[in-house]
User: What shape does this take?
Amino acid sequence: MERIELKSLPFGVNMRNIHINMRDHEGMARIASLIGKPIRLDRANEERPTNSFSGVLFEVEASKPLSTILALIYDSAKVYTVNVDYNCVPVRCN
Assistant: This one.
């Protein structure tokens, strides 16, 4: 059997504890770019940007580790933490 090496994978991600000033489309795109290439925001987030929770579909490089905590600097001084939960993480083969 031929071995196929995947360069990137799509992942559904839930992000929690998003600062209120980062919940607009631009802020979510900046946060999402720390994980990978954002493909789509959850419809609930688009309709209710006031939630501190957001679902995003990403394309992530297969060779990189998956971040579960993101530290964001806001207003050049305050550090906010965003928690990241992956909906389904495949097993990596060696």
The chain has one domain: 9-86.
